[in-house]
Amino acid sequence: MCTLLLYAVVFAGAAYIFRQIFVKGKRCKSQLNLTGKTVIVTGSNTGIGKTTAIDLAKRGARVILACRNEQRGLSALEEVKKATGSSQVVFMQLNLGSLKSVRSFAETFLKNESRLDILINNAGLFMQGRTSDGLGLTFGVNHIGHFLLTHLLLDRLKQCGPSRIVNVSSIGHNFGNIDFDCLTTHKALGLGTSLKEVFQCYTASKLCNVLFTYELAKKLQGTQVTCYSLHPGAIKTEIWRNTSSLMQLAIASLMAFFFKNPVQGSQTTLHCALQQGIEHLSGRYFNNCTVRDVYPKAKDDVAAKRLWELSEKLTGLA
């Protein structure tokens, strides 16, 4: 019994040290006040999106919670208002799996809001299916929806410069590969439904995020708009809610020791959105509030240009 207790104490101590060194991560050091600034955060009804919105609202920003589910979005709205004491928090419905919804959101926003200083493309999912436009669901929500949204709001961002675009990717992009033949033929990153195949689609969509940011930075040269992609860390959020019960159980076990909480997970997003002096790093990828080098496939000029042109075609921009 004493031996088991000793082992338990040692394991708990080791887990605590591991979390403090490797999991907790750095914090955003910016003290920037955002009074008079307007920010959009997609997927801000839960997880790191909501904690990001709370932080920004506390800094005085007008924060737009752009969420698909109205009930969950309105619930988050009340939570953010209560946590911050701010009246400058607004819910607007946005379904990234519908190009019509994205266009409607952008039209309403541009009509009702005079500024846009920071756009945080945070929303994402881990599941297969099809969007209302016939695109692969993972590709449509994680990349195409944000691609179109960014384009529709870009002029307003330019007018309000210096401004920023932050694309929440994942370290999983390192495992991703984009099958352009599949994208061209089936408008999806993959067709399989096994866990492995869904994971491959997810990581490919995260690679799309990094390549999109890389190409966007080129096109923004000469403007006062900068853009960044990032890995938030392994986070205790609801992104896994659409996976199998067995998968959720396994992830829950890992979360207890090795995953960041949403506040910790939002720090790199906040760093990219707020930290002064990183403008020259536009188009780069960040992890743990630090710029990181990426593999050649994540800064491939040909692939980035091809993805951009295909995305323009699929969204009707070209």
UniProtKB/TrEMBL annotation:
InterPro entries: NAD(P)-bd_dom_sf, SDR_fam. Keywords: Oxidoreductase. One of its GO terms (molecular function) is oxidoreductase activity. It comes from the Eukaryota. Belongs to the short-chain dehydrogenases/reductases (SDR) family. PANTHER family: DEHYDROGENASE_REDUCTASE (SDR FAMILY) MEMBER 13-LIKE 1, PHOSPHATIDYLINOSITOL-GLYCAN BIOSYNTHESIS CLASS F PROTEIN-RELATED. This is Dehydrogenase/reductase SDR family member 13-like. The gene is LOC115401086.
